[in-house]
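Folding Query — how this chain folds
Tokens — whole-number codes for backbone shape
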Amino acid sequence: MDVDDTSKISAKGTVTPSKKGWTLEDGDFNVQISKLQLASLKPLFSLAGQEMDMSGELNSDITVKVDDNAVRLEADASIADFAQGVGDRRVVFKEPITVNAVVSGAGKEVQIKTAKIRSEFCNLDCSGTLESMDYAIDADLARLQPIVKQFTDIPPEVSVSGMLSARGRMEMTDGQMRLVSENSKIQQLKISVPDSEPFIQDQVTLDADVRMDMGEKTIDIRTLNLQGSQGETLINVTKGVVKKKVSNAQTQVNGQFEAEYDWQVLSAFASAYLPEGLAVKGKRKSTLHFDSEYPTDNPEQMIANLNADGVVGFDSAEYLGMNFGPTELNANVRKGVLNLQIPQTMVNEGTLQFVGSIDLTAESRFLRSTEPMLILDKIHLNDTLTELLLLYTNPLFVDASETSGIASFSCAELAIPLSAEDQAQMTIRGRFQIDSLRMRAGDFMSQLLTLLQTRDTVTMTVHPTDFVLADNFLSYEDMQVDIDDNPLNFKGRIGLDKTLSMTVQLPWTTDFHSVKTDRPSQDRITVPIEGSLDHPEIDTGKFIEKQGKELIEQEIMKQLDRLFK
């Protein structure tokens, strides 16, 4: 059986022209399109200056009836195997797209009786006039997102999923469009960014009133209120104006927003630009201004030319075991570089302050300090801080628990990568100290306590220690740790892969006299720390062997001195 794949377009009809001029009193038309391949239209669009990367097979049946100069159009169409875009951005529709519409008009007035678009993940119903139209949209946001990204200047690393049910009205007057959304809902909303905790809501509702001027390229947000399932405000834009001026060479964008927001929502969108593990909470009201001018043919330069100003605050935040109280951050962007200033704020019963920047244009983003400063002053330690930070400063903290103490940290240089992929490039040059340190000892510290023949419950002090974290290693020349009145001096480096290359100077002289913190001595026993950060240990056998050899060598030297005197 032969199959005819030839595209066909046919038209037929009858008309009754008016005797008074170029009008139709009555008529009946029918246009049928069969198996039209959309890809074949690409040359025609190119001639019109429009690029088109779509394919599919169009079939349609259009009927036009004219009755006393009034026109009624009925259309049924379907597109099978529709695809849009190229390469990784290509989106393929497995199910046909169907369109059903009934439109009537008399004179200049056009009435859309009904217009329905059906696809596998988005349905649209609308009715009204060209000037004022009611609409209803039901969509699967996860499946709609790849298509929307193709029409935006910048696709961000944000994934959105959920079922949208939107109802509203669209008004068009003299090139100005108004979109009103009333009680629109998203069920099972999920917003996620790689390497970050997603933002999830069972249901959110949206009320919006947005005006757009097509000629002036402006967006005026009168209302944009996103609420949670309990009616709580997530994002409420009380004023938002965005203006975009496009020429062949340059595009200018500027805007200003006044908004109330919930940090839990913003964090989901902004987590690509925030340190991994940072959790921020609280509701605030802020004003933001931004502008950017970039080449029209290179929209990726928008961020590189971005300038912005604003003050951002939060009620609380958690990061690496540090618990922040209410904080206001002064933030601005200059040519794509985000500058941050945190004034002195309460953290773990101490204080924190910081001045730094993030280059948003860089492929690998880092939070960098911009000047030497005392960052942490007298903050109280906890087990999380010990596990995430102190563990890599000294084997004493391996498997430690119930940690307490008061720590301070200053730095001359700091660069913290915002992505886990760039952790090897972390750089810190600074100094820290800990007072009144107490903790439940792990295995390594228990070994030391046994050597010192001291009790399990001790108070320790970590003297001010200069250190460098670079190339995946933290190193220092001397870290003195007093266990009660017993001084231990550590030296060497610890790898972020938990390798060890360290020694510790014990509180005994080479002739086995005890050394206390109030009676320092340079002539002390030094032993290597073996194993890894997972299992550090002091080999007591080698320790005794090493000290025996040193005693023999010392005795030989004494005898030689006597012979040659």
Q: What stands out?
A: The chain has three domains: 7-115, 121-329, 363-565. The first helix runs from residue 42 to 47. The mean pLDDT is 84.
